[in-house]
Design a protein that fits this description.
alpha/beta, four-stranded parallel beta sheet
Amino acid sequence: RGRGGAARNHRRRCRDSLSGTMQISRYGLSSFGVNPFHDYLAIKVLFMDWKDKIAVVTGASSGIGAATARRLARVGMQVVLVARRLDRLEELAGEIRQAGGQSVAIPADLTHESERTRVFQEVTGRYGNIDILVNNAGLGWYGYGSEMAWKMAV
């Protein structure tokens, strides 16, 4: 079958991994037995106690950020949602809470250093530590990377 069959099998294994069977291979999270170190990591992650850990998800108002926040809340993490659109953050936070999760929304434009500092101080002031950071916020830049201001790149 060539690559088509491998890709199809990979999608099936990934689907299975999202339903509770965590596995790792050269394709990513999919099958045991390829690398003993990866097997160790997969088992450690699978049995790790995620309950009440703190996860900060930037770019959480839509797309991958919102889906990641939902998934982290489902495994028992306290999720801090960060993005510019407060209305969407509050809607997602309400959805997470209604499903039995814990969530707080912090609106911020992370292109500004002062906003990044404010978010960090607010999260560490409230929770103490951050266990997981999903740095998903996007930034559009039209032009050559060499022309981008350093402050914007960082």
